[in-house]
Automatic annotation (TrEMBL):
Major facilitator superfamily (MFS) profile domain boundaries: 1-64
Organism of origin: Halocaridina rubra (Hawaiian red shrimp)
GO cellular component, one term: membrane
Membrane topology: Multi-pass membrane protein
This protein's name: Major facilitator superfamily (MFS) profile domain-containing protein
Keywords attached to this entry: Membrane, Transmembrane, Transmembrane helix
Spans through the membrane: 26-46
Length: 64
């Protein structure tokens, strides 16, 4: 799922990362925004395809 905002202090200390304040705002907001979009899509998918098929379909992006 990537980094979330609590990981920002450790990322700033790591020499391998070079992040700006703009990058920090993206890192902190991508996961909550994705959760919002995913929750809005989950209901219709569950109603249309059922729980089992929906979870099997959604396992593919998680594995990638």
């Amino acid at each position: 799922m990537g980094y979330t905002s609590p990981a920002l202090p450790s990322m700033k200390e790591d020499a391998h990362f070079s992040i700006t304040e703009d990058d920090e705002s993206w890192i902190g907001s991508v996961m909550p925004a994705s959760a919002l979009i995913g929750s809005l899509l989950a209901g219709p998918l569950l109603d249309t395809f059922g729980r089992r098929r929906t979870f099997m379909f959604l396992a593919i992006p998680f594995m990638i």
